[in-house]
Structures are given as C-alpha cells and as structure tokens.
Design brief:
Blueprint lengths: L39 H12 L23 E3 L18 H23 L7 H26 L22 H15 L6 H4 L7 H16 L8 H15 L8 H10 L7 E5 L38 E3 L1 H6 L8 H4 L3 E3 L4 E3 L32 E5 H16 L3 H13 L14 H16 L5 H7 L3 H15 L9 H5 L11 H6 L10
Antiparallel strand pairs: 1-3, 2-6, 4-5
Length: 517
Amino acid sequence: MKKIIYILIITAIFPLASCKKFLDVAPTDFLSPINYYSTETEVENALTGVYDPLGREAMYGRYLFTTLAYGNDEGLRSASATTTGLEVFNYTPSDGIVGNLWTSCYQGIDRANDLLANIDKPKMDDTKRKRIRGEALFLRAYYYFLLADNWGDVPLKLSPTVSASDVNIKSNPKKEVFDQILKDMETAEPLVSTSTELKFSGRVSKTTIEGIMARVCLTMAGSQVNDPSKLNDALKWAEKVQQSKEHSLNPDYKQIFINQSKDLYDVKESMWEIEFYGNGIGSYNETSWVGVWGGILASGPDLQTPGYGYGALYATNKLYNLYTDAADVRRDWNISPYYFTTTKPTNFTATQLYNRYPGKWRREYEVVTPKSKNVSSTNFPVLRYADVLLMLAEAENELNGPTQKAHDALNEVRARAHASEFKGATIITDKIIFRQVIQDERARELAFEALRDHDLKRWGIFISTMKDLSKNITASYPANLRFLALAGNNIAERHLYLPIPSLELSLNKAIKQNPNW
C-alpha cells in the first residue's frame, strides 16, 4: 500500500481539467515522467493536473464549503439527526472527509513538485515557461496553506517522489511551513500573468497571489502562528492589489454570485474562482455542490424550476441580526427570504429567523440544463476584491488604529451594500471597536464562502464564539430547533486543528497525531 502523501506523479499528471477555460481536452493514457514534459503542450497539461485537485469533492467541489465549513456562527447543519460528523464536532481521525482533504492536498503538491523538476526540459517560449513555473509554485504553496491552516504541523516535501517505499517523514513546525508558503508565493508573484491579461478567474493571476499572501500573512499574525510582524506584510500585499487598479467592486452585490452560476467572468471583483462545468451527464464533467447542498431548500416535484436544493444548512439568527442596516442588500441575498416546495417560492414570515437557508448561490440562475438533483456547474470563489479591502482595513487598524485608510477600505465595501458608512459623527476612533466592526463586516460580506472558521480561529475566538452561540440557541431558539446548539456544546480545544488521518499514521511511523486526538 502506498503512503497517502506519496502518490507517484506518473499517475497524476494527466490533464483532468479543473479549469475549463485554459484546457479543453480529454484525459490522456498512462505516461511516465521520463517520457513526458517534452513539449509545451505536455507542460501545460501537467499544470492542469496541478490545478485539478481543487475541483474535487474533497476540496472546493463539495466539502471545503459544506461539511468542513458547517458549524460556526453563520450557519449550522439543519438535520436534527446529525449527531456525529465534522458539522457537530463529533468525529474521529478515521473520518473519510478528513483523510480525503489531506490526500488531495498532497497529490496537488506531488504534481507541482514533478512539474517544477521538469519545467526546463522542453524547448518553449521562456515567458510561458516562467508563467507555468509561477502558477505551479503558487499552487504548491496554496495546498500547503490549506494543510497548515487545517492541521498545523505537516510534512514539508519540496521535491518529486523517488520511491513509494520512503514513507517515514516527520512533520515540520507550522511556522516553517508558513515560511515556505510565503517564499514560494513571493517567487511566483512576478512570474504569472495579470488579471487583465487572463480575462477570466479560473487561473491565478499576479493580484490573486498578492491577495492570498495578504490572507496568509494575516493568518500568521493571528493566534495560530502568533507572528504580529506579518501584519506589515499583510498590509503591503493588500495595498499592492488595490494600487494595481486591476480590480474594483461589482456595483451589484448579488450579480457576483449570479455570474458564477451563469458562467460569466467578473475579473474585477471575483479574482479567483474554482470552475465547474457539466451536469453529471456524459463523460465531460467537473461538477460541484454549490447551491445544491447548502443552498435554498427546493424539494418540490419540478427539479428544473428552480433546481433541487437539499436545504442542509440553516443560517443563524446571529448572522441575520448582524445586518443592522435595513437598506443592506446583502441580508436578503445571503439569507434567503423564501424556499420552494412547488415551482413558486414560499416566503418566510418576519419572525422565522431560525431556519432560513443560505441564498448566496441560487439554482434558478444556472444555465446548464437539464439540472441535476445532486450537482451544479456553479463556480466557487476563493478570493474576491471585497475580501482584499477588508483585509487591508484589518491590517491597517491592527498596525495604526482606525485611520482614514482603514475607514476608506471598509466604507467602500459597505457603500456597495447600501449600508451606512462610518463617516463624520459615526467615524470610529477606538481600535478595539474597529476590530469588532471588521469581524462583523467579514461575516456580513463573506458569508458561506468557507472563510468563517478560518477567521474565527486566527482571531483566537472560535471556541468562545461557538460556546456563546450555543447558549443563545438554548435560550432563545424554538424548542424544535435547539438541537442546533450541539456543535457549540461539543467543540473543544482539539478542534482548532483536524486530526492527522488514521491511514497516514498507520503508514508514516515518523508522524505524530495532533494534541488531544
């Protein structure tokens, strides 16, 4: 049996495109790296293989924004029968979702390592070679970011697999892993294309890398790595995105997500998306669960209008009540005011604030037909310009307090949402108050985009937030919905990181389990 971390690249370089825009070919047959990488086309195909794990169910095809992101103060699993699993913090190291995410990250890393080791083989345009090198470096770093963010200390492997029998590798301290992540991303940043050159969001651009580096640096400045010096770097990278003038906010908030269902690119706002296509019919598909599992309940007899929805997630009343401005358009988009049991919507009443569904991605806007009951072709956003502005405001406040620069970035996001801006008599002068405003604004703006757990952990308030949420549910929710308190009741210190998968521990004798698992 081969170790999870060491899937040989000869089985992993095939062009199973997760990014439909830049490669539209069928998978090739088995190829050895010895005979591969001889042409520019083969190198491009190998790069597509590096992107490919991002679209799997283990990652952004399903679990990164569903099971691995259900169980926080924006949304909770709607099924009362769910008493075990990641959504309610009752699982073991043998959980398949945990193991599959680990495996997919390391497969992406192995593919990147093999491509980087062979990138100089073919005769090709040097600008294209640099661009491919840059994308592969960034993707390797991003897979490591997902690993370090979810597991902490992990094995750091930067060269191709030589032997599948060499299985015993110790974990590197998370600080070393994060340092390597930044090193790779900084090297990649000047090599890749600009967003304007690409004209679509399925491939990483120069400003995408800068924006993700701001996210990485804020993570390192937070409780997991506790390196406040990285705040300066977070501000620097966020400002680089802003100063590039490549990006701006879409004037219509809901249109961002309609575009993702309609397969329309908005490179100004939606800086990096994982692209999906097809409806599960035929051989050429890479579908997701966006809008299907954690979207609006639609269980009527007609699955085409609007499209089936499981309604597997309830938005919390805490999230609903965070939208304190009546004019804020984000509330009734992110939290659906209706559901379907027939082809026509049924509106929630004004008092039904405890069992509403996320509405960010609405299946009625999908263009691929016939619509599947279980999957969609809607793209998932990894990075938006609004996120960059909020990261800029957060880093500026932590370094210098609530300056005009911090207010300007925050107000730009709020103005687009038609929420009141902090100006004149409402300007914020206290750093602690501004910090809380940013934390709430990120919930309002980025709800259900698989960032809330990440944010709460780096702020060091994940457990306390969930405990407070459970107390609120027990005290104020209707009796039939108080089962939603289970996640907060179960959460403990060990849940700040995932357990090392059981299979990995059985094969790699040098690795140690995370604390309390």
